[in-house]
Structure formats: C-alpha cells, structure tokens
Amino acid sequence: MNLGFLVLLALLLALIVTAIHKGQDFGPIFKRLIEQFAKLVPRMLCALVAAGFIAELIPKETISGYLGHDAGLLALPVAAATGLLVPAGPVIAFAIAAVFAKAGASSAALVTFVTSWSLFAAHRILIYEVPLLGGSFLRLRATSVVLVPFMAGALAMLIGYIFAFGSPVPIN
Fold this sequence. Notes:
mainly alpha
C-alpha cells in the first residue's frame, strides 16, 4: 500500500464516522457507491488494457529516448505534444503516464504530459470547446496558456535537480 491509498482510506473512515455521528441513512450512500463502482471498474479495466497495448506498441527504448532524463529539454515539447494527442479521459491518460514512467520517462516529462493533457486534450477541444464556445475563444484560451505545460515541466526539472525526489516509477 502506498501513502496516497492510506490517506484516502483515512478520509473514508473519517467520513463514515461523521455519517454515523450525524445519524445518516446509509441506503442512498450505498446506492451511489454501487453506481460509481459499476461505472469506474469497467473503465479502469479498459484503461489498463489500453495502457498495456501502448506499452507493447511503443518500445521502452523509444519512450525513454524521447521522454527520459537523457532527452533533457527535448522531452518537454515531445511530452506536451503527446498530452495534446491523447484522446481520452483521466483513467486512460494517467494509465498512459504510468506506462511512460515505468518505461523510463523523467518526472519533468510526466508533469509536462499531464499538464498538456489537462489543458489541451484534443477530444475536449473538438467535442466541446469549439462547438460550444467557438474558435475565437479557443484561440484566446490556447494562446494564454500555451506555455504552462513547458513552464510546469521546466519547474519540475529544476525542483528535481535541487531536491532529488526520486523516480516517478509506480509501485507494482
């Protein structure tokens, strides 16, 4: 178990204690739990299978060559472009980030990838932003935040050099 899981477990226990203390009816809570479980588990399974395919399709040497520590600052635009092109929600995007981490991507590249995906996911731009808000809004928003993924990655690289937090490899 990792620290994040333990924190979430402690938060869950605190919420259960609070609900019991306030005399909450647990029927709607359990109904919501089952609904969320039924939605998220199939998505997680699909995301992990998709991430596994990505891990097999893209050789680890390629990932570490373009996104690893040896790539230096070149890793940032590659990671930003990759984040832009991932047409999926957080379940798949973070599974892909975990594959990148396991293949040797640097922390700075992962920060850039996740930040770019968060700001510029192509599917959100094409499905929601342009049809609902228009191209002029997209131009304004994109030009106002285009440097953010690069700045986040560069800052992560700088912090990594100063503090040496370690590698981003997920725990198996």
